[in-house]
Write a structure and sequence with these properties.
three-stranded antiparallel sheet, Multidrug-efflux Transporter Regulator, Chain: A, Domain 2, mainly alpha, Globin-like, 2 domains
């Protein structure tokens, strides 16, 4: 049986544009092309696409994915390895969910008591985070920002020099503020509040001003930051660990803000 590119896009969630790109770079050529020029895929191609998506979920680059697929490695062994890594990622995300849940409870307790937030064990704020993952993802993110928004990159570099003087207490407070911002946006999303709502935009404005402590993104850069929350697997997992779909909601709220306030 053969499936059209539209069928494969519908089944997999991968856009037709991406599938055509995979064909152009030799990563996923279709089984055949009809007289009308449409691409058609067979079962072996669907299995190959699954392999590609699995490795993308694990932050493997397209060039390395192609090298793996073109090697004569036993596919069952490769799938078994992917399965083990996914199980490990599941456990890590469960730990992150517990971390965020614990922080949420402490933030809500402080709000209910009209008191300053008191974190019982500050080290618990970071349980489940993997610094190595941030390093790898961060290098890719920095390369993209440097290429697409050079002025913003230069400003951020200057700000990082100032950040180097931050104390441990400053870093802890920074982490608290970031977590509180994410939880506030999750509350809006759970309530079904549109991203254009003034209360949501006030929260985004607070986030933008928080970002401006280190650099001042223009409209395009701020939109790009929001899109990065969605596109980067690690960032999206961090947001969606708090509430499923939060990364997209945050991105949409930032886009509206950028169009309304920064353009």
């Amino acid at each position: 049986m053969a499936w059209s590119i539209a069928d494969v896009a519908r089944m997999s969630g991968v856009t037709s544009r991406t599938l055509r790109h995979y064909d152009e770079i030799g990563l996923l050529p279709p089984a055949g092309i009809g007289g009308n020029g449409h691409r058609y895929y067979e079962e072996a191609d669907l299995l190959r696409l699954q392999q590609i998506l699995l490795m993308r979920e694990l932050d493997v680059g397209l060039r390395k994915i192609r090298a793996v697929l073109e090697s004569r490695i036993d596919q069952v062994a490769v799938l078994r390895e992917h399965h083990q890594r996914l199980l490990a990622e599941r456990d890590r995300l469960e730990t992150l969910a517990r971390t965020v849940g614990r922080t949420l409870a402490e933030l809500e307790e402080g709000r209910d008591n009209n008191d300053m937030v008191k974190i019982n064990r500050p080290e618990n704020l970071f349980e489940g985070f993997d610094p190595a993952r941030f390093s790898a993802a961060g290098e890719a993110a920095k390369a993209e920002v440097r290429e697409r928004w050079p002025r913003a990159w230069a400003e951020a570099q200057q700000a990082r020099q100032a950040q180097g003087a931050m104390s441990a207490e400053d870093v802890e407070q920074w982490q608290r503020e970031v977590t509180a911002q994410m939880i506030r946006m999750a509350e809006f999303m759970a309530a079904g509040t549109p991203v254009a709502d003034p209360a949501v935009q006030t929260a985004v404005d607070a986030q933008y001003r928080f970002v401006c402590r280190t650099w001042s993104p223009d409209a395009a850069a701020y939109k790009g930051m929001g899109q990065h929350f969605v596109d980067d697997p690690q960032m999206r997992a961090n947001y969606d660990a708090i509430a499923d779909g939060l990364a997209v909601y945050q991105r949409d709220a930032m886009v509206f803000y950028a169009d309304a306030r920064l353009s």
